[in-house]
Protein backbone atom coordinates (compact mmCIF):
# COMPACT_ATOMS: atom_id res chain seq x y z
CA UNK A 1 0.00 0.00 0.00
CA UNK A 2 2.82 2.34 0.98
CA UNK A 3 6.53 1.71 0.57
CA UNK A 4 9.46 3.93 1.60
CA UNK A 5 12.94 3.05 0.31
CA UNK A 6 15.96 4.86 1.77
CA UNK A 7 14.00 8.05 2.23
CA UNK A 8 15.84 11.12 3.46
CA UNK A 9 14.40 14.50 4.27
CA UNK A 10 15.90 17.84 5.17
CA UNK A 11 14.13 21.17 5.60
CA UNK A 12 15.88 23.76 3.45
CA UNK A 13 19.60 23.73 4.13
CA UNK A 14 19.17 22.15 7.58
CA UNK A 15 20.40 18.73 8.71
CA UNK A 16 18.69 15.54 7.55
CA UNK A 17 15.66 15.08 9.79
CA UNK A 18 14.90 11.60 8.37
CA UNK A 19 17.68 9.29 7.18
CA UNK A 20 17.52 6.08 5.18
CA UNK A 21 13.94 5.38 6.18
CA UNK A 22 12.75 2.06 4.73
CA UNK A 23 9.42 0.52 5.70
CA UNK A 24 5.98 -0.36 4.38
CA UNK A 25 2.38 -0.04 5.45
CA UNK A 26 0.60 -3.26 4.48
CA UNK A 27 -3.12 -3.34 3.69
CA UNK A 28 -5.38 -3.87 6.73
CA UNK A 29 -2.53 -3.19 9.16
CA UNK A 30 -2.47 -1.40 12.50
CA UNK A 31 0.68 0.32 13.74
CA UNK A 32 2.03 2.90 16.11
CA UNK A 33 4.68 5.43 15.13
CA UNK A 34 6.70 6.55 18.10
CA UNK A 35 9.97 8.18 19.17
CA UNK A 36 11.22 11.11 21.23
CA UNK A 37 10.00 14.66 20.65
CA UNK A 38 11.59 16.12 17.53
CA UNK A 39 12.53 12.66 16.17
CA UNK A 40 10.58 13.22 12.94
CA UNK A 41 7.11 11.68 13.46
CA UNK A 42 5.13 14.62 12.11
CA UNK A 43 7.58 14.93 9.23
CA UNK A 44 7.00 11.26 8.34
CA UNK A 45 3.21 11.79 8.47
CA UNK A 46 3.54 14.77 6.13
CA UNK A 47 5.49 12.59 3.67
CA UNK A 48 2.77 9.93 3.92
CA UNK A 49 0.06 12.54 3.28
CA UNK A 50 1.99 13.82 0.25
CA UNK A 51 2.30 17.31 1.71
CA UNK A 52 6.11 17.01 1.68
CA UNK A 53 8.38 15.41 -0.90
CA UNK A 54 11.51 13.50 0.16
CA UNK A 55 14.93 14.99 -0.53
CA UNK A 56 16.15 11.53 -1.48
CA UNK A 57 14.89 7.97 -1.76
CA UNK A 58 11.63 6.56 -3.10
CA UNK A 59 8.08 6.77 -1.82
CA UNK A 60 5.50 4.57 -3.47
CA UNK A 61 1.87 5.15 -2.46
CA UNK A 62 -0.95 3.00 -3.89
CA UNK A 63 1.45 1.81 -6.58
CA UNK A 64 2.45 5.33 -7.64
CA UNK A 65 5.85 7.00 -7.38
CA UNK A 66 5.20 10.05 -5.15
CA UNK A 67 7.94 12.05 -6.91
CA UNK A 68 6.07 11.88 -10.22
CA UNK A 69 2.62 13.02 -9.08
CA UNK A 70 1.10 16.22 -10.44
CA UNK A 71 -1.27 18.35 -8.32
CA UNK A 72 -4.46 16.61 -9.56
CA UNK A 73 -3.07 13.13 -8.97
CA UNK A 74 -1.83 14.17 -5.53
CA UNK A 75 -5.31 15.47 -4.66
CA UNK A 76 -6.92 12.24 -5.91
CA UNK A 77 -4.56 10.03 -3.88
CA UNK A 78 -5.07 12.18 -0.79
CA UNK A 79 -8.78 11.36 -0.91
CA UNK A 80 -7.76 7.79 -0.13
CA UNK A 81 -5.82 8.91 2.97
CA UNK A 82 -7.49 10.30 6.10
CA UNK A 83 -5.45 12.43 8.45
CA UNK A 84 -6.07 13.74 11.96
CA UNK A 85 -3.74 16.63 12.71
CA UNK A 86 -2.32 17.26 16.16
CA UNK A 87 -4.02 20.69 16.23
CA UNK A 88 -7.30 19.38 14.66
CA UNK A 89 -7.52 22.15 12.01
CA UNK A 90 -11.29 22.51 12.23
CA UNK A 91 -12.77 25.58 10.55
CA UNK A 92 -14.23 27.78 13.29
CA UNK A 93 -16.96 29.33 11.13
CA UNK A 94 -18.44 25.95 10.14
CA UNK A 95 -20.51 23.73 12.44
CA UNK A 96 -19.27 20.31 13.54
CA UNK A 97 -21.55 18.76 10.90
CA UNK A 98 -20.23 21.09 8.18
CA UNK A 99 -16.61 20.45 9.15
CA UNK A 100 -17.12 16.69 8.88
CA UNK A 101 -18.99 17.06 5.58
CA UNK A 102 -16.34 19.37 4.10
CA UNK A 103 -14.26 16.71 2.28
CA UNK A 104 -17.43 15.57 0.49
CA UNK A 105 -18.46 19.12 -0.35
CA UNK A 106 -15.00 19.68 -1.81
CA UNK A 107 -15.63 16.61 -3.97
CA UNK A 108 -18.80 18.41 -5.14
CA UNK A 109 -21.14 15.73 -3.84
CA UNK A 110 -24.81 16.61 -3.29
CA UNK A 111 -25.66 17.10 0.37
CA UNK A 112 -28.66 14.77 0.09
CA UNK A 113 -26.29 11.93 -0.84
CA UNK A 114 -24.23 12.18 2.36
CA UNK A 115 -26.38 13.86 5.04
CA UNK A 116 -27.40 10.60 6.73
CA UNK A 117 -23.86 9.24 6.61
CA UNK A 118 -22.36 12.34 8.25
CA UNK A 119 -25.00 12.21 10.98
CA UNK A 120 -24.39 8.52 11.57
CA UNK A 121 -20.63 9.02 11.81
CA UNK A 122 -21.11 11.90 14.26
CA UNK A 123 -23.31 9.64 16.39
CA UNK A 124 -20.64 6.93 16.19
CA UNK A 125 -17.95 9.26 17.59
CA UNK A 126 -20.38 10.48 20.27
CA UNK A 127 -21.03 13.94 18.82
CA UNK A 128 -24.68 13.46 17.87
CA UNK A 129 -25.72 16.22 20.28
CA UNK A 130 -22.94 18.60 19.17
CA UNK A 131 -23.60 18.52 15.44
CA UNK A 132 -24.81 22.07 15.05
CA UNK A 133 -22.36 23.94 17.25
CA UNK A 134 -19.21 25.75 16.14
CA UNK A 135 -15.77 24.32 17.05
CA UNK A 136 -14.86 27.13 19.52
CA UNK A 137 -17.50 25.82 21.94
CA UNK A 138 -16.33 22.19 21.69
CA UNK A 139 -14.06 20.71 24.37
CA UNK A 140 -10.60 19.44 23.37
CA UNK A 141 -11.83 15.84 23.26
CA UNK A 142 -14.90 16.80 21.20
CA UNK A 143 -12.71 18.67 18.70
CA UNK A 144 -10.50 15.61 18.47
CA UNK A 145 -13.50 13.39 17.69
CA UNK A 146 -14.79 15.90 15.12
CA UNK A 147 -11.35 15.85 13.44
CA UNK A 148 -11.42 12.04 13.46
CA UNK A 149 -14.91 11.99 11.93
CA UNK A 150 -13.77 14.40 9.20
CA UNK A 151 -10.81 12.14 8.45
CA UNK A 152 -13.12 9.12 8.17
CA UNK A 153 -15.98 10.52 6.13
CA UNK A 154 -14.34 9.75 2.77
CA UNK A 155 -13.78 6.11 3.87
CA UNK A 156 -10.00 6.31 3.56
CA UNK A 157 -7.89 3.24 2.90
CA UNK A 158 -5.24 4.61 5.27
CA UNK A 159 -5.87 6.62 8.39
CA UNK A 160 -3.00 8.70 9.83
CA UNK A 161 -3.40 10.25 13.25
CA UNK A 162 -0.91 12.55 14.97
CA UNK A 163 -1.15 12.20 18.78
CA UNK A 164 -4.91 11.55 18.62
CA UNK A 165 -5.07 10.87 22.36
CA UNK A 166 -2.83 13.77 23.34
CA UNK A 167 -5.58 16.06 24.60
CA UNK A 168 -8.00 13.69 26.22
CA UNK A 169 -8.41 11.91 29.55
CA UNK A 170 -7.46 8.20 29.79
CA UNK A 171 -11.10 7.05 29.49
CA UNK A 172 -11.66 8.92 26.24
CA UNK A 173 -8.24 7.82 24.98
CA UNK A 174 -9.35 4.19 25.37
CA UNK A 175 -12.65 4.94 23.58
CA UNK A 176 -10.79 6.60 20.71
CA UNK A 177 -8.46 3.61 20.49
CA UNK A 178 -11.46 1.28 20.32
CA UNK A 179 -12.78 3.42 17.50
CA UNK A 180 -9.47 3.09 15.60
CA UNK A 181 -9.46 -0.66 16.17
CA UNK A 182 -13.02 -0.93 14.88
CA UNK A 183 -11.97 1.01 11.81
CA UNK A 184 -9.00 -1.30 11.36
CA UNK A 185 -11.37 -4.29 11.52
CA UNK A 186 -13.38 -2.81 8.66
CA UNK A 187 -10.23 -2.96 6.50
CA UNK A 188 -8.55 0.43 6.90
CA UNK A 189 -4.79 0.57 7.60
CA UNK A 190 -4.25 2.70 10.68
CA UNK A 191 -1.08 4.50 11.74
CA UNK A 192 -1.08 6.35 15.04
CA UNK A 193 1.78 8.64 16.03
CA UNK A 194 2.09 8.81 19.80
CA UNK A 195 4.46 9.39 22.70
CA UNK A 196 2.22 7.45 25.04
CA UNK A 197 4.02 4.24 25.94
CA UNK A 198 1.26 3.29 28.40
CA UNK A 199 -1.27 3.46 25.58
CA UNK A 200 0.87 1.40 23.18
CA UNK A 201 1.46 -1.24 25.85
CA UNK A 202 -2.28 -1.92 25.92
CA UNK A 203 -2.23 -3.12 22.30
CA UNK A 204 -0.26 -5.84 20.62
CA UNK A 205 0.44 -3.78 17.49
CA UNK A 206 3.32 -3.22 15.15
CA UNK A 207 5.63 -0.36 16.21
CA UNK A 208 7.61 1.96 14.00
CA UNK A 209 10.18 3.67 16.20
CA UNK A 210 12.05 6.77 15.01
CA UNK A 211 15.21 7.81 16.74
CA UNK A 212 17.49 10.56 15.48
CA UNK A 213 15.88 10.35 12.06
CA UNK A 214 16.25 6.58 11.67
CA UNK A 215 13.30 4.22 11.73
CA UNK A 216 13.20 0.70 13.14
CA UNK A 217 10.20 -1.60 12.70
CA UNK A 218 9.14 -3.98 15.48
CA UNK A 219 6.55 -6.40 14.10
N1 LIG B 1 9.07 23.30 8.71
C1 LIG B 1 10.21 22.99 9.31
N2 LIG B 1 11.35 23.64 9.02
C2 LIG B 1 12.54 23.33 9.62
N3 LIG B 1 12.68 22.35 10.50
C3 LIG B 1 11.59 21.65 10.85
C4 LIG B 1 10.30 21.92 10.27
N4 LIG B 1 9.38 21.06 10.80
C5 LIG B 1 10.09 20.29 11.66
N5 LIG B 1 11.39 20.62 11.68
C6 LIG B 1 12.46 19.97 12.49
O1 LIG B 1 12.48 18.60 12.11
C7 LIG B 1 12.70 17.77 13.26
C8 LIG B 1 11.57 16.75 13.36
O2 LIG B 1 10.36 17.43 13.66
P1 LIG B 1 8.96 16.70 13.75
O3 LIG B 1 7.92 17.75 14.03
O4 LIG B 1 8.79 15.84 12.58
O5 LIG B 1 9.20 15.80 15.05
P2 LIG B 1 8.15 14.98 15.95
O6 LIG B 1 8.77 13.66 16.20
O7 LIG B 1 6.81 15.02 15.32
O8 LIG B 1 8.12 15.85 17.28
P3 LIG B 1 6.96 15.97 18.39
O9 LIG B 1 6.84 14.61 18.98
O10 LIG B 1 7.55 16.96 19.36
O11 LIG B 1 5.72 16.48 17.72
C9 LIG B 1 12.83 18.71 14.46
O12 LIG B 1 14.19 18.92 14.69
C10 LIG B 1 12.15 19.97 13.98
O13 LIG B 1 12.73 21.10 14.60
From TrEMBL:
Belongs to the ABC transporter superfamily. Keywords: ATP-binding, Cell cycle, Cell division, Cell membrane, Membrane, Nucleotide-binding. This is Cell division ATP-binding protein FtsE. Residues 2-219 form the ABC transporter domain. Its main location: membrane. SUPFAM superfamilies: P-loop containing nucleoside triphosphate hydrolases. It is found in: Cell inner membrane; Cell membrane. One of its GO terms (biological process) is cell division. Part of the ABC transporter FtsEX involved in cellular division. Important for assembly or stability of the septal ring. GO terms for molecular function: ATP binding. InterPro entries: AAA+_ATPase, ABC_transporter-like_ATP-bd, ABC_transporter-like_CS, ABC_transpr_LolD-like, Cell_div_FtsE, P-loop_NTPase. Homodimer. Forms a membrane-associated complex with FtsX. SMART domains: AAA (SM00382). Pfam families: ABC_tran. It is a peripheral membrane protein.
